[in-house]
Amino acid sequence: MPKRDDLKSILIIGSGPIIIGQACEFDYSGSQALRSLREDGIETVLINSNPATIMTDPTMADHVYLKPLNTKSIIEILKKHPNIDAVLPTMGGQTALNLCIEADEKGIWEDFEVEIIGVDIDAINITEDREKFRELMLKIGIGMPPQASATSFLKGKEIAQEFGFPLVIRASFTLGGAGASIVYDPERFDNQLSHALEVSPIHEVMIDKALMGWKEYELELLRDKNDNVVIICTIENMDPMGIHTGDSITVAPAMTLSDRTFQRMRDMAIHMMRSIGDFAGGCNVQFAVSPDEKEDIIAIEINPRVSRSSALASKATGYPIAKIAAKLAIGYSLDELDNQITKSTSALFEPTLDYVIVKIPRWNFDKFEGSDRTLGLQMKSVGEVMGIGRSFQEALHKATQSLEIKRNGLGADGKGYKDYETIIQKLTVPSWDRVFVIYDAVQLGIPLNRIHEITKIDMWFLRQYEELHLLEQEISTYTIATLPKALLLEAKQKGFADRQIAHMLDCWESEVHKKRMELNINRVYKLVDTCAAEFKAMTPYYYSTFEEEIETADGKRYVANDSEVSNRKKIVVLGSGPNRIGQGIEFDYCCVHGVLAAAECGYETIMINCNPETVSTDFDTADKLYFEPVFWEHIYDIILHEKPEGIIVQLGGQTALKLAEKLDKYGIKIIGTSFQSLDLAEDRGSFSTLLKENDIPYPRFGTAESADEALQLADELGFPLLVRPSYVLGGQGMKIVINKKDLEAHVVDLLRKIPNNKLLLDHYLDGAIEAEADAICDGEEIYIIGIMEHIEPCGIHSGDSNATLPPFNLGEFVIQQIKDHTKKIALALNTVGLINIQFAIKDDTVFIIEANPRASRTVPFIAKAYGEPYVNYATKVMLGEKKIKDFDFNPHLDGYAIKQPVFSFNKFPNVNKNLGPEMKSTGESILFIDSLKDDDFYNLYSRRKMYLSK
Prior knowledge:
A hairpin with a 5-residue loop joins strand 19 and strand 20. This protein is an alpha+beta fold.
């Protein structure tokens, strides 16, 4: 039976600003759902307040409402669109579900005759209310940990007395594990219990006997109206129970599960999904398995919606869960739908993996000074990476190479811990770098049994580490000249980077690369095809690996490569890697638009990225997707294979920019602004010299490379001083200092963290107003796409400031200076493409703080506020296809748009919440106001100096 004919118009609720616990995986899901519904001719109406995402692009839905996610906005939209038949709330994470429930309780859906599809409210209530969920599981014979719910402090204390410690406290109806904790002793219990009761919107907690050391698994399911159920992916957590899945290293397919237990788990998951309600859509089920021979299975939770893991499972298998879930919600059955990758098989087909994926979370603890860096039941990561390989070892290495934390993979880079006590401590208390510390422990000779005893990580994973260490030891006995081919091939097959092998052999990375080429040990590319090559796949979605040569009967030797190179002109867009503070989803928006614009210009588009949460790594965004680390060696090999016309680096944030120097050195064409210009803008000293030559004001400054030089400079410049390192993003390491003692301490700390960096010391313009301009330049002409004024005073990072478009308080004289300076700087830097310039305004003089000739964080915001596809235009300028004069610019905005940062401080309760030059916000929302008399603007303006720190 095909789709329902009565659904003509559907409202989709987005997930709002990015916060820890709910990141851009829901924008990926929402974008897929919108495209899926539009394919079927259904009118789509979207509400989402996040301007930085591709999901809120005007091309994604028929009607996009950038409004606050509340019932007032929902009523406004439903009045404006009385033809809306249904609401799909399962694509926007917990935020969308909670809003859907609230609207249901207020009778809004009933008043407007809107049906809820993709889930039913009873299913949400059963799964979120931990007491109801427990009762249902026991009724259907599914094991649960000993647990009880409490709605008062006293009841909680009674339960603790009955169960004994350790205990797990979980708050009902919360996101990202908010309010959850493991408590080992009565002293901490009272505080944690009070906190969880407070955090839960219904003031209810569930207290479980902690299953410490049990293994954790997740299953992703899809079900249609005919009760067909498919299990898309089984994900195993390398970390045992006790660490939130969003903070765990996860592996697919499951590695250490016996087939008997796997079949039992499948049956239980399907039974659970069927028992919670009669709905068509996606579902995520989590289980704990005892680490003994019995392999007892206990249910942890079930989410009747597209989850964080759905995005990962979609990218891991090539099966687009959200796209299919949206089709199921409108009445299709699985057997009526095509497998989106093969195009020839049915969607009623469970994916088979002939490779391994490893996901590693990306944390940003450095942004939260004094934060508790230990991992537990509350999620703390801000993003994630995924590595695909032929083996667990290769995938693990690729994932660690993708993290962008100045590591080249596991070990073999001279950065590991060598102290026994430190290693034992780090293994005992799970922290963000445990994936590396396990290797350090093996290297130090700590027995695997001891590591297992401390971490409870399955011995299978630890033996994989041990094999890598033994291989490193063996390779280290050779030189580059004597290293046998078989050993080099084995190292590459196990994921070691050329850089790591060079470290083992004490030679240069380029020498290892050269030796590989001579020995014909080249990367080959394999398809992610959902079916282990059983059927032909139509979608070019690749990962790299190394294989032995095959010899045919006639003596011909070759290595099988699935990636065929066309003779079309090609452009590579470098993605932005994992989300983190300072480089978020806005760069993914830019990359997607860059890919689409290059395709419009007739190029074959190639995307390289390793972030499973985003639209840029969707298998049908670019003509070819290489799901690979944004890491030099991987990129260079793809370039040698594909031979593109050039590489676009200015859309992928600092990740892509950092590779510009290497690309330039190897003679690879950078599309748009040249490396020399990018470098000039990044090198604070050279840039200030350029400003001086062009007669543009800037704060008094000097550069220093040691604490002594910095202290001498301070005498000339006078305090307060703004200290900034070169080549960083998100204000990393920036600080305002007010005396010599602070200056010395900060400079010593910075040079320890970022050795050989050139530091810039600016005289800080106290009390200045901050503004920024974004522009497109074609090398001759320039068009300013937007000027934004910050509501907070100068000294708070632009990413943490509330900012208005257009400016609200700058006179014509100041605006003219901003325009003049922007044009002069863009042309002096030979900019081709986008540029962002930041200004400080004091006594009606406009000073330059910095210029970035690349896509900035604010470009998507300006594009959404004015309704103009600026990244599309800028890409065409970079490619030399168009000039500024060829575009018909027509920005439209009534009143003002305000960019409002969103923080995730609730994950780090003891952290200093003051704002300064280093960015701390995790996301942003957009607020439209008609005039400056609006209450929201008045509130923001009155609080503008509240959090300023120096």
